[in-house]
Amino acid sequence: MADSGKHVALEVQAPSIGGAPHKEEAQKVEVVRVGFPWRPGPVDKLRAIMVSPLTQAALQLAAGQFVVCLFVFVRHISFSNSCLASIFYIASMLLLSLDTTVGSRLLAAASINGSLWVGVMSAGAMVSLAHAPGVAYTTFLCVFSCLALVVFCALRAAAPLGTGIIANLGFGITIVTAQFSWPGHTLWYTVIVHFLEMGLVAGLGTAFAGLFIFPTLARDELRDCVAQIVSELGSSISGMGSSGGAAAMDADLKRQRSQRALQIHMCAREEDQHDTDYRYSAGWSQNTDTRASRVDTALSAGTSASRIGGIKDELCTSLDRQFIRDASDPRGDHDPRHAESPWAPSASTLRPQLLLARRLLSEAQAEPQFLSAYLMQLGDWAGVLDALSSLITKSAALESVLEGEEPLLQDRALRQLLGRDVLPVFRLLYAQLAASCAAIAKAVRSDKGSKRAGQYALLFGPSWGVLEFELAATLHAALKGYWQQYRVTHPGDLYRPAPQVRALLYVATLTNGIMESMAGLEHAVMVALSKQMTVFPLPHQRQDIRARLTSLDQRRLRDRISLPVQSALKVVRSHGQLPTDTTPSPRPPWDASGDDQDTVARPSEAAPAPADDGSEGSRILDEIKLALDERSRSLASLSWSQSEAPRSPRPKAGGQVSLKRLMAERPLQQRSSQALQRHADDSALTPRSHTGPDGERPAGWWPWLWLEVAWLLPLVEGMLAFPVWTTLRTLLTQRIPEALSSRGKLAENTWRNRYFVFGLKFWVGYCIVLCLSVALSANHAAVRAWRPLYAILTVVVVLSEKIDLTVTRGVLRLAGSVLGGVLGFLVMLRPSVATSPYALTAIVCTFTCLCGFLTMTQFKYAVFLTLVTADALILCQYTGRPGSHGTPQYFYARVAMVSGGVVVVYLIDLIMPWYASSAALEQMGAAYAAATKLIQRDYEVFHDELERVGRPCNPGDAEKAEAAEKQDLEQTEKDILHKCIAAPLSAVQASLAREAVLWKHGILAMPKIVHDMLRCMLVLLDRLAAVELMLQQKPIVSGRYSAAPFKHLLEPIDKRLRAVLAAVVELGEAVKQVLSADKTQPALLELVADKIKALEHARMLLRLKYLETQRTLHDACQETYLHDRTPDDAIRFLSTIFALSKAIDKATLVARTVLEDEWMQQRSNWRLLLGIQP
């Protein structure tokens, strides 16, 4: 008990593994006293602030600013216009460096020099040419500078943001500064060289801040990020397992309408359902309805079978139409049930973190190896991210069908349909997947490369081949149980497939794919971790002890994770045995022998005998260890599929295969390889000196040297301005030829290209400000004193593609100039402060540090503009002469030039304005149209694949056709799913995060339709990925497909199904026109509404044709179709049709979201011109 109300005594008993606890363990009780509730004190809060990323960013920014100040205040290293280095330093830290890692800082330091020298050298060449004899200097400089700006404006529109801004700043500022510098050696040695030195100073400050002030390695951040993603993914999978099949909660007010409609629908018998978002309530079998009563009355009165079918079809059609509308209702609940819990995040929300991990991987390539205590093969970590991306995609595809208020699958409904429980097996599989994610996350976080590959094979989860076999056996039992149960309960009724079975097959197929991806992820992580090497190895004796203890800890950890799930699977098998049938049952992954082959008895020395059901936990664990695949040899052994394994004849009798039988039937060579693997694991405990991660000796001095200097390659590329040349090459070889290819619509496509319009507006604004600055400075000396270069800086920094973002930047530019200018003006008024380098350095660094706390927030751009103004006013007015101080004229000139630049930018951007919301809607409209075409394309692939299976051909031709079909599907997925759908949605996500305006309400706020549309499109993307996965599935139960589904199921409904898909494509084009229009057009909205109605009508016709086909099959149930088919035919056909139906449901939901949004119905031209939102 607790001594007071502030503490609680907890008695914790350590659980034993695999059996009853020992007596000594049962007597050990640990008492832990914890304070409750715990609140962080002042020391805890201070410690959290000091170690936070905000403090790290602020201190790094201030430290780099100190380095830059040295080149202004120290006379021996200062040079003319050295104060302008602060502008490029702030741009490097806040625009080029995306985070605080060492790799990011080094890349920014290299990129600032590469982009700057391109602009500076171009400006120097332009000024030199303008001084040619017989040339009008000012006129030539203005005209040819505008011609050169065509290239730089193209860089600003197409290149990355920081690269384009730095190159344009270097060109414009150099032109204005070097205008009156001549002869040539004065121009190049006092202006151009000094500008190049500014880049070096800015890069030096950036590198110093990243290397010496709270340095953080990108490789460490990469490991933490990967571990966090895997951990959250495991929580998501665990949430899906715990929420799937859960009983429905008590109905409340918001669910009454859906529950009432659900009760009506369920009373019409479960075979009359449509494959949309059906939700089973807990007591649906006890509810009645008048329409359902009329159906039952007709049945009891002896109505003819055709009349009964007509009554049922009429009721089914009305209910199906209602459920289609409910599934695509924008006001409905379409969030996954487990996503409501904070500990079970949605799998689709992990994609931004995966992009962050890829960015960290690129930054880690620029980090010196000697900074880390261990070496990482970054190429192997790229494989880890690819495997993790595949796992996230499949998990998100499974998650995309778990949305809504009620569960998709329920234990009670499936028990009534199948006569047995199947969901517990799925929950156990998800539990094992979550446990494997926990093991991977722990290994990635803690391990530093001191283990070998054999030891990692012991750490990670069980043999996924065993669990895939369990899943195949479950599917076999589900299909057999469904048919047997249905024949017993409905002997004379018409067969109509239950959507619960379709959903079950869909979930099972995705679960099998998730397990294959998990096996691939384990293999990739094992390879990545086992190839790491410690730079400073421990002494031989300590290393030997550490290796042995680590191996034992790994074995214990794996035992604790894998044993409960495997034991529970044995319990599930013991309670539900498969019925004996002549249908081919799934073969275990390790059984490569058939009944006609000789089996070799297992010798006693190869492995221990199989344990009985009542044996100790350690003996069961030995069985499970022996059942593991050879996980360290190749990925193929990890992601086993029965279609790829050697086929064996059918067994004489089906049924559940026990673990002891599997152990007895294993081939001798498989057991020998397992024994060799165990010997390799034991030999891994013995350390070896002067060897690599797996015991091999280094290949030579060249790999070692390349490993030590490879980090310099991305830095050299940045110094040589590779991003600039890559962007120009892309423009010349791809963008411009594509624009010129359509000569008939060249003008129309050019003016509709938003980036071309932005580049043109940027060129016009830049030319106006640059020519005015050059011309007025040449004719009026007073203009030169007002520093017109700040007007050029304003145009380059403020003008953006979207007008609302331009307005935001203009306001921040004015506010930052006033705030920084007032600070600089007040500091430089007192001569005692204005002439003291120590005081000025302290003031500048302190102000920079305070502003640095906002660099990781949405005010990052405001911090950049404020610091640029404050540093320019303080550093550029410092002379070091006694009694000197700043002048108000400098402050007035600064504010005046900035205000003039902002006015020019606003006037230019009001011409053909483009809003951030319009850009996002246009991109998502194009992606939506591509998604509808992809649905149609996927059906074409599915149709051709089913037809090819039934076409007689040679085995070699069949393999070639299958390979060509697979390659075509992969190319389609790459060209359409990734480039046309996923890439635009990722761009919209990044744009909303990077270019967010400061206003949450008002005329410049982002409309709600953008976020709603993006959320729906991301779910549609997951469902399209699910369709792709359904097309790639392999026969996991029987090992083969037959021609029956195409002849008896798909061919009769092919015409109606193609009509549905054509209606989906037409709907996609209509929605694209609405989202791409500059204003609301009622005719386009009416067209979308008509297309939605046409799609619903086509789906109803398809439903009736499908029921007619099922009735025909039931009447001819003795035909060869029922004998020649395989369980995998039902799995593939029903799961693919279910996935297509779910994708069409979500596509309809997106269209209705656009149609019913109030903002879409009211926008007009005057909003586009004035920025006013009705």
TrEMBL record:
Transmembrane segments: 54-73, 79-99, 135-155, 162-182, 188-214, 755-775, 781-799, 811-829, 835-854, 861-880, 892-915
Domain Integral membrane bound transporter: 775-907
Pfam families linked to this entry: FUSC_2
Keyword Plastid: no
Any one annotated GO CC term: membrane
Chain segments carrying region Disordered: 326-345, 572-618, 668-695
Membrane topology: Multi-pass membrane protein
Composition bias type Basic and acidic residues, residue spans: 326-340
Keywords for the protein's UniProt record, in alphabetical order: Membrane, Transmembrane, Transmembrane helix
Protein name: Integral membrane bound transporter domain-containing protein
Source organism (scientific name): [Myrmecia] bisecta
